[in-house]
Design brief:
single chain; alpha/beta; Rossmann fold; seven-stranded mixed β-sheet; 9 helices; about 25% strand; transferase; Methyltransferase domain-containing protein; Methyltransf_25; methyltransferase; SAM-dependent_MTases_sf
């Protein structure tokens, strides 16, 4: 596969088409990003966080409130901004400098001052302390599985006792014609670039990897963190099947 470095590809999205890179809808492409569409983009983040908190209080902890939140793969701040309205402190983590810079601008434009942004690496070496809410949505699917599993373990090491984690992974594909696309991209040189042309994009437009994780291994990681209960729900993004896991790390006696 020609474009195999997912960090570099994500930085390309950050430079060329950051909002579409976060939320792959034509309304959010740079060429279509009107003020109205941008408002729709951020409104979707508000609605999403409201729904997540409702599910946490329904299934995990009825009285849950956020003190310190971490959003892994924060992009341009779609979810960081609504989190800042319900948490005392928020940390946005992303591997792309361009995404982080855009997220900072979006927070500054809204006079949000309780958010910090941190550059990500596989060991999360720039993170300090623990968080009572750790979240990641439509992010790990773009990270190669071996790296993603290790990052997930490192994230859990930053989850506070009695803290809540909400994390999304893809685990399978359910489509027909597109089944060949991952194979073609991986084994046929320049296939990703040719697909770009077919889709009306630039030849060297960045590519999003879509990786499927082993659910058994994920649940083993969660259980090893001494978690004994969780709530799960399924997602389906154009045939990319996923699972969102909600769980609480037990309070240390």
């Amino acid at each position: 596969m020609l474009n195999s470095n997912t960090d570099k590809e994500w930085e390309k999205f950050g430079k060329d088409d950051p909002y579409f890179g976060v939320f792959a809808h034509d309304n959010f492409r740079r060429i279509n990003l009107t003020d109205e569409n941008k408002e729709e983009f951020f409104k979707s983040g508000v609605n999403y966080i409201d729904a997540v908190l409702e599910k946490i209080r329904q299934h995990i902890d009825q009285a849950f409130t956020i003190k310190k939140a971490l959003d892994f793969g924060c992009g341009v701040g779609r979810l960081v901004i609504p989190l800042a309205n319900v948490a005392k402190e928020v940390t946005g983590v992303d591997v792309s400098d361009s995404m982080l810079n855009e997220a900072k601008k979006n927070c500054e434009a809204r006079l949000i001052k309780n958010v910090v942004f941190v550059k990500s690496d596989d060991s999360l070496s720039l993170l300090n302390g623990k968080y009572d809410f750790i979240h990641s949505f439509i992010v790990f699917q773009h990270i190669p599985v071996t790296r993603g599993e290790q990052i997930f373990k490192n994230l859990l090491a930053h989850l506070e006792s009695d803290g809540v984690c909400v994390v999304h992974f893809t685990y399978a594909r359910n489509y027909t014609i597109k089944k060949l696309v991952p194979f073609v991209k991986k084994y046929i040189p320049f296939s990703s670039n040719l697909i770009n042309l077919i889709m009306g994009r630039k030849f060297f437009a960045p590519q999003m990897q879509m990786n499927c994780y082993d659910v058994n291994r994920l649940f083993l990681t969660i259980q090893k963190a001494n978690v004994f209960e969780c709530y799960t729900e399924f997602t389906n993004h154009g045939g990319e099947l996923g699972i969102v896991v909600y769980f609480k790390k037990p309070k240390i006696a």
